[in-house]
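Quick check before the chapter quiz. The format below is the same one you will see on the exam, so make sure you can read both the input and the output lines.
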Amino acid sequence: QLQLVESGGGLVQPGGSLRLSCAASGKTLDYYAIGWFRQAPGKEREGVSCINSSGGIINYSDSVKGRFTISRDNAKNTAYLQMNSLKPEDTAVYYCAADYYCSAAARGMDFWGKGTLVTVSS
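Here is the expected output.
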């Protein structure tokens, strides 16, 4: 069973940066697409970014395009989300998820981590 653990969340000022990590265990990530999702209080979980198994296909939501960068290191069985120019509206619990293909919808991803909280505030 594939298990995912996120880390790297925390409190950051507007304009700051954070890098989230998604470490996998139980199975190799080589054959899985990795998605990052977030859920703010009172809102639905939304897709932020996704990278396919080879890293050749990447997509971003319009709200983070140009500020966030997704990447993966299959040798380390880990994926990352570099978040720059953070805004208060980026505050949310961030989740990584895995499945054979990317999906912008949370229901399209099979394996999930428990999330890491990102708070953007002065």
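If your answer matched, good. The radius of gyration is 13 Å.
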